[in-house]
Amino acid sequence: MNAVGLIYGTITVGALLAAESAQSETYIETVGAVVIALVIYWLARSYAEFTGERLERAEPLRFAALGRTMLHEVSILAGAAIPLLALLIWWAAGASLGSAVTAAVWVSAAITALIELAAALRAKLTGLELLAQTALGVLLGVLVIAMKLVLH
Q1: Does residue 45 register a pLDDT over 90?
Q2: How many angstroms separate the first and last alpha carbons of the chain?
Q3: Alpha-carbon distance 140 to 123, whole Å?
Q4: How many of the other CB atoms lie within 10 Å of CB of 48?
Q5: What percent of the chain shows pLDDT beyond 70?
Q6: Pick from 26, 5, 13, 7: nearest CA to 104
Q7: Is it the case that residue 80 has pLDDT exceeding 80?
Q8: Rounded-to-integer distance, Cα 92 and Cα 127, Å
Q9: Whole-structure pTM value
Q10: pLDDT for the residue 22
């Protein structure tokens, strides 16, 4: 699994939901808009990666190669799945859309911090190095939460 895509997907869905105005949308509109935006982001990221490589190598467009790039980048959608699942669970539980969006934004922030913690632990960091590296993930998560606070 492409870890880069997982991280992009997690942060992107958090930012999308942070910008969401729960007062004027419904659950269906919110989920639909987020899914469409994520698919557009996945396609754009795949196309940009593919086209950049073709430009560097002076190669023509080959749809099979584009398909391989899209498959490699599909982890963007996987990274977005957990925060989106949190939104759906809150919906199923009967929560207000505003509460569900807030929960999903916090889930996105937490996952971002946990990914950085996992990377630090995998690198066998300890002490201040572990703390500093984890702080980067926390900072990114806090920025997503801050975006929600500023916009709403």
Answers
A1: yes
A2: 35
A3: 20
A4: 12
A5: 98
A6: 13
A7: yes
A8: 41
A9: 0.87
A10: 66
